[in-house]
Amino acid sequence: MTDSNGSDRKFKWVGTRPIRHDGVDKVTGRAHYGADFDLPGMLHAHVLRSPHAHARIRRIDASKALALEGVKAVITSDDIPELPLDEASGPTNFSDLSRNVLARDKVLYHGHAVAAVAATSTRIAQEALSLIEVDYEPLPHVLDIRAAMAPGAPILHDHMRTKGLKEAPDEPSNIASKMELTRGDVDQALAEADFVIEREFETATVHQGYIEPHACVAQTNEDGQTTVWASSQGHFMIRAYSARLLRLDISQIKVIPMEIGGGFGGKTTVYLEPLAIVLSRKTGRPVKAVMTREEVFRATGPAPATLINVKFGANRDGKIVAAKCELFYEAGAFPGSPVAAGAMCILAPFDLDHFTIEGYDVVLNKPKTAAYRAPGAPPAAFAAETVIDEIARELEIDPLDLRRNNAVSKGSQAAYGPKFSDIGLIETLDALRKHPHYEAPLGENQGRGCAVGFWFNAGMQSSAEVKLNEDGTAVVVEGCPDIGGSRASLAIMAAEELGIDVYKVRPVVADTEAVGINDNTGGSRVTFATGMAVIEASQDVVRQCCERAANIWDIDAKDVIWQDGCAVATGDGAKKLDEEGKLPSMPIAEIAAGAARTGGPITGKASLNARGAGPAFAVHLVDVEVDRETGKVDIVRYTTVQDAGRAIHPSYVEGQMQGGAAQGIGWALNEEYVYDADGVLANPGFLDYRMPVALDLPMIDTVVVEVPNPRHPYGVRGVGEVPIVPPIPAIANAIHDATGVRMRKLPMSPPNLLAELTRAGRA
Amino acid sequence: MATVILPARFSDWTGGVEHVDVDARDVRQLIRALDERFPGLGEKLRDGVAIAIDGEIINDPLLEPVEPDSEVHFLPPISGG
Questions:
Q1: Is CATH 3.40.50.2020 what the domain over A43-140+208-299 is classified as, yes or no?
Q2: A436 class by beta-carbon count within 10 Å (0-12 exposed, 13-18 middle, 19+ buried)
Q3: B47 vs A contacts (CB less than 8 Å)
Q4: Does the first or last residue of chain A, that is N or C, have fewer Cβ atoms within 10 Å of its Cβ?
């Protein structure tokens, strides 16, 4: 595979907008999601959850539940292996994961799973839950970052010692780890700066808000083979994690992916699947488990609340010279917040010689956090980009000019270490400058704000096969659940390489036994990494087709090229065919039809650990109108500009940009977990956890910039995550422009904004 | 020789050394060389760490080639959402 990024290539399908192959099923309701699957004899599973935020489990008595007619099994942590505390692979600690799936010894948040029941109906299973007797010893709980870090705080894990400190501590702590990035001499640089701005920011816990709750069906046969039907962002992850937690061979579990109704990072781990598997093994019957909306809010993985302190030094000439950042992220009940990513992103857009960034991962009695679209980056950008706006105002410099003057570019050393290759930050800033929105007039009580966002994007493992059918049509077999139109993009790439119509390519998301290993759909990696695998597999098919044609023609294979879906003879080969009066061209359909006689089926495959994922930058511009009597903020106009490298299917790139912006708007203006003093979530539903709907937002304008990623054959960069990063600071900056008030706490909801307006005398 | 930049979180093993030149042709050799120089560091670098070679981030690195003029950084693994 060459490193050409497609810059000099004339594409036939890349950049077009074919109808997605899964579209008809999705809009007619035929598509099968996680809960849309039933089997004969199926049981229904429900989970008993902790009523306490923090408590020791003294005893569980399920005898009365088991005696209820229709109940076939009750399981607790006694029914799953106890894993060593340090059993980990990469960033995943499997002991923590196991204890999150089913509490062992202690419950650590309200809603923490304690037991699970399988019964012949949902009603009986729910009645059985009420018959399970659990003797708890309530413990003091802690729900706030500052309180969790304070001396004397209730300790969640007696064995936990803070990692990353210069001297290993003796005492347990709720600070799981500290990480640090440094460059230059930040104290000296700050001391020499013309002025310094220091601010503190606070964000609340928010949920990814996917419409589809977690759901799965597990069936175990008499030979111990288990099949799981599940919606997720990674069925290979479900298989691997379930096998690890339950000490099964991976080959004993097959996972069939259902369609997924949203994930955004929240479905990159397991909650119900191990429970359903154990219940199916215990009962010998299929078991279905579906979360309620309330369970999704109380007991899956939200994005963390954060505390961030930033200190920027700048000179009057517009140069930002130094920055000091402290990030404290809530991990929830077990370590593993995205504070490292937040720390690596917070200064990523800026070319800085002097900085210190510290990140702290803090546990407390809330559900274990999970990934949410560019995890860690949005709160970090809220802090940094708000202060950048303050600096622009202080210096009376256009905010885009200030960012451009301090922007990273090719060859800059990223704040997190490596040098950037080709990146598109300056191109996105310039594109926004030229957009008519930038100079459009504003009305009364309206303000305008902008902000930049960054995300790394991932590569990771992907496998694909491209199979040529007997009539020259093709099937693309891949293993990444489709959460954003990736099937269509992969079909486009296969069609481009094979030279056939994209509607003659059928993309399939295959189960764990039908395709090689694929890492999760997430990290903005599928179009990049699985796309790379599909291109490689398609090129393998093309190579085989050329060989077959050469054999049929009885010419040297080096004289055969591929053009517009045909093998074409060139050079001496073409001369020979001319002499014989034969056409020097053989279409793919002819080669496919004769495949049995020329060597057998033609299948291309590729498996890789993709490297060279190109980082992405975006800049957003928003106009808001503020009602000074109520504090309500309306989004009047919104423009997103983003470097996509190469937009394979522009509609789905635009969709990611708009979707990320919509989620960022909700995060900025309204969303937060509200807890009472007992650690009980007070708003576990879409009525009171208010996310933007179509009526809340204007059309979000999208501008796709293409600075090709040199490490992808078509120049692709991931697009799914970076668009959630700029909205929060862009809106905060627009609110300041409209009212003169700086919001440094999320959400910027009507009561919160009204309080600030009142305090500032601007209500 | 490749230049390796070592983050502060490994200072327990490196004694605060931030830059070191290493002669290695791939990641496995590089980690082995670092472990010889800073005993115990190898185990920390083999799991749960991503690597950036000349700006490219790689998860689960082992056999990726390292050029004589490469710049290598060790990073927390980032997978995304």
A1: no
A2: exposed
A3: 88-90
A4: N
A27: closest CA of chain B, how far (Å): 25
How high is the pLDDT of residue A496? 98
Q: What is the CATH number of domain A376-453+614-759?
A: 3.30.365.10
Q: Which of A340, A609, A721 sits opposite B80 (nearest CB)?
A: A721
ipTM for the predicted complex comes to 0.93
Q: The whole model's pTM is what?
A: 0.96
- Does residue B7 sit in helix, strand or coil? coil
Q: Across the interface, do B55 and A418 touch by the CB < 8 Å criterion?
A: yes
Identity of the residue in B5, B11, B78 whose CB atom sits nearest the CB atom of A458: B78
- Within 8 A of B48 by CB-CB distance, chain A residues are 88-91
CATH number of the domain located at residue range(s) B2-75 in this protein: 3.10.20.30
**If DSSP codes are grouped into helix, strand and coil, which group holds residue A289?**
strand
pLDDT at site A4: 61
Question: Among B80, B78, B50, B58, which Cα is nearest to A522's?
Answer: B80
Which single residue is written with the structure tokens 């980009």? A385
Residue B11's CB: how many other CB atoms inside 10 A?
15
Pull the structure tokens for residue A435.
Answer: 């957009």
CA distance A664 to chain B (A): 14
pLDDT (tens digit, 9 = 90+) per residue, A208-267?
A: 999 999 999 999 999 999 999 999 999 999 999 999 999 999 999 999 999 999 999 999
Out of B60, B64, B76, the one facing A340 most closely (by C-beta) is B76
Helix segments in A273-410, DSSP class H: 273-283, 293-299, 339-345, 377-395, 399-405
The nearest alpha carbon in chain A to B5 belongs to: A417
Nearest to A375 among B7, B8, B80 (CB): B80
Q: Which CATH architecture describes the domain A23-31+459-610?
A: 2-Layer Sandwich (3.30)
**Pairing state between β A603-610 and A226-230:** unpaired
